Amino acid sequence: MTLLDWQAAWQGALYGPDGFYRAAAGPAGHFTTAAHGPLGELLAGAVARMARENGLTHVVDVGAGRGELLTQVHAAGPALRLTGVDVVARPQSLPPEVEWHVAPGGADLPPALRELDHALVIAHEWLDVVPCPIAEVDGDGDLRLVMVDSTTGVESFGALVDGDELAWSTTHWEPTASGDRVEVGLPRDHAWDDLVSRVDRGVLVAVDYGHRGGDRPMEGTLAAYRRGQLVTPVPDGTCDLTAHVAMDTLDHDELLDQRTALRGLGVDGRQPPLDLASRDPQLYLQTLATSSAAAALTAPGGFGDFLWAIKRVG
């Protein structure tokens, strides 16, 4: 039995030499995100519009997967400079104009990614896979790190939480009863601060499933997915591991739900008028497909519950 604290086990499972995100299939082989397919096309249009409205000429996608969103942004805004960041080598399917940086994984960003100017930086479902400590209140009322066997997922208590991690928990996510869990968001806050520091002028947007103070999930949110199915979290490299983000603890100027953010960028789920079907059937079908994708991106209980933390620099 090999016991590690959850942060270390999680890091190895996703970003180690045989980590989940280094596999040839990539994330798209196991689950669909809002950056894929028709939803990705609509999201890319909103990203391109956001860049234009803010006078930005460079779009950077952190946690870009295999470049699915950037490929769509290139089609929506061909004049934009585009850069992708992920742990794998440049995907062969990317348009040649798209730049690519290989990151070490997790919170660590490539050294070359800095001094970004007039940039819109999108961190779409990046912070939820930045590993963080997981802690739980024991029977004596003490907050302890949770240890995990990396091959079975069996958990046990570790050391008492102390120092900066305890201060973060006390300030932002204080548990009250035995069994309450804390996903200590300090590594996510630091990762975001590091990303912000690399922008000279621009706008940064973190998009993730998350929560705010006063609405913390005391049972925790750690989850795992394999081939489209929700499975027991085991940090063995065979499944995605993710936990929602304490979005309000990130340095931000605005914190919006995705419905509000996308509607402000012209995305809504209104159906086309029925008479359009007889006047222009092809246009009706195209508009219907767009409205269906918009409805999915803004739906309560789904992608519409994403939170957008927006930070303006310079």
Automatic annotation (TrEMBL):
GO molecular function, one term: protein-arginine omega-N symmetric methyltransferase activity
One of the Pfam families matching this protein, by short name: Methyltransf_28
GO biological process per UniProt: methylation
Superkingdom of the organism of origin: Bacteria
Signal peptide: none
Keyword Transferase belongs to the record: yes
Gene3D superfamilies tied to this protein: 3.40.50.12710
This protein's UniProt keywords: Methyltransferase, Transferase
Protein's name according to its UniProt entry: SAM-dependent MidA family methyltransferase
